[in-house]
Design brief:
There is one protein chain. The chain is of the alpha+beta class. It has 3 domains: 3-164, tt1808, chain A; 167-219, no CATH class; 246-352, no CATH class. Helix content is 42%, strand content 21%. It has 11 helices and 12 strands. The strands form 3 sheets. A 6-stranded mixed β-sheet has the order 1-2-3-4-5-6, with helices on both faces. The protein has a 3-stranded antiparallel β-sheet with strand order 8-7-12, with helices on one face. A 3-stranded antiparallel β-sheet has the order 9-11-10, covered by helices on one side.
Length: 354
């Protein structure tokens, strides 16, 4: 499995979904889900992939849509729904019961547009299947390594478990750092001040906060928390309208505000910064590139690299040829947008999903 393979799968699937948004379950299986299983390295024409796998649950019987087998035993269950169906708590419970009944380590619930990866916990005396990731089809591009956990190669070798444990550990660490950022930054600053003296206390306190933010960025995931808490918010029903827009309005206080909106935080951030560069001479306010507000990562640069030479993991190209680093969590995006806007003598208001 490769990034290029995932890119090709996403493009092909989006095209099929756009042409048939009400695609039912059977067509979804053939056109979207079986190609994904093959992308993950499972041979759908061999005995290692069994359709309608029979499972006895209590006194009743059920059939899993797909069982991916290793040495004759289910290693991954795939529960499929049509594109015209949202993923429900009932479907999640159904998949978890399959995993528990057969001792399968992995599960995938998908309707071809959203992909939920479940993992059986191994650090608990009680059987428990937890949600490791919930990804939209577009998010597969930047999170293909999470989807790769279900690949035949990683599941057979046991590497999938090792990687999943790291993902969960990073998630827990990021959550702890975010919730206790001020306290942790204060402790870091105190430790440094005790070592070097209090002459530079203000600078050390500022840099300590930047350090914690950078650490959160390194440990965290891109975009809108694709590694969620273990009990996800349910998807909106077909009668509800999901609000996915992020809105930023900037103003100089003397006229109507300029509004930027979009479904991705990164795109909205790029639009705002591009506007400031083109119309308010932001680069002159910054001084020189690369612009590195912390210790490591450039937020703006003339090339898609950080000062260390490391490639920007995710960036947007601006109209003047500069590159904006957007592999940031939501709070960091808000903070940097606010800072750029202030540099230009403007104010910013955040609405929508912010």
């Amino acid at each position: 499995m490769s990034r290029d393979g995932v890119e090709e799968y996403v493009e092909r699937s989006k095209s099929l979904i756009d042409s048939s948004p009400q695609m039912g379950e059977e067509n979804t299986k053939v056109k979207l889900i079986q190609p994904l299983i093959e992308l993950l390295g499972w041979d759908t024409f061999s005995s290692e992939v069994e359709l309608e796998y029979p499972i006895q649950i209590g006194q009743g019987h059920a059939r899993a849509d797909y069982a991916l087998l290793l040495d004759g035993s289910p290693a991954v269950f795939v529960e499929a729904k049509g594109c015209d169906t949202t993923l429900s708590d009932g479907a999640r419970s159904q998949l978890k019961s399959y995993m528990r009944q057969k001792g399968a380590g992995w599960g995938l619930l998908t309707n071809g547009q959203r992909f939920e990866v479940l993992k059986r916990r191994e650090d608990s005396d009680l059987p428990d299947e937890v949600l490791l990731a919930s990804l939209s089809i577009e998010e597969l591009r930047s999170n293909w390594n999470v989807l790769e956990l279900l690949s035949r190669e990683l599941v057979r070798s046991g590497e999938a478990v090792t990687r999943a444990n790291r993902i969960r550990a990073r998630k827990r660490a990021t959550s702890e750092l975010q919730s206790g950022k001020e306290e942790i930054a204060d402790e870091v600053a105190k430790l440094i001040v005790n070592k070097v003296g209090d002459t530079l206390t203000q600078e050390i306190e500022t840099e300590s906060k930047e350090f914690i933010d950078d650490l959160i960025n390194v440990l965290g995931t891109d975009e809108d928390t694709t590694i969620p808490r273990e009990d996800p918010d349910p998807e909106p029903s077909s009668t509800e309208v999901a609000t996915n827009e992020y809105v930023v309005a900037i103003s100089d206080g003397s006229g109507p505000a300029k509004t930027f909106s979009g479904e991705k935080q990164a795109d909205v951030m790029a639009s705002v910064v591009d506007h400031l560069v083109e119309n308010y001479d932001l680069l002159n306010e910054i001084g020189s590139l690369p612009y590195v507000p912390g210790k490591k990562n450039a937020i703006l640069n003339s090339e898609p690299k950080h000062p260390s030479g490391e490639e920007m993991r995710l960036c947007r190209s601006l109209s003047n040829g500069c590159f904006l680093y957007v592999s940031l969590n939501k709070k960091s995006k808000i903070r940097h947008i606010d800072r750029f806007v202030s540099m230009c003598g403007l104010t910013a208001e955040f609405d929508g999903n912010w």
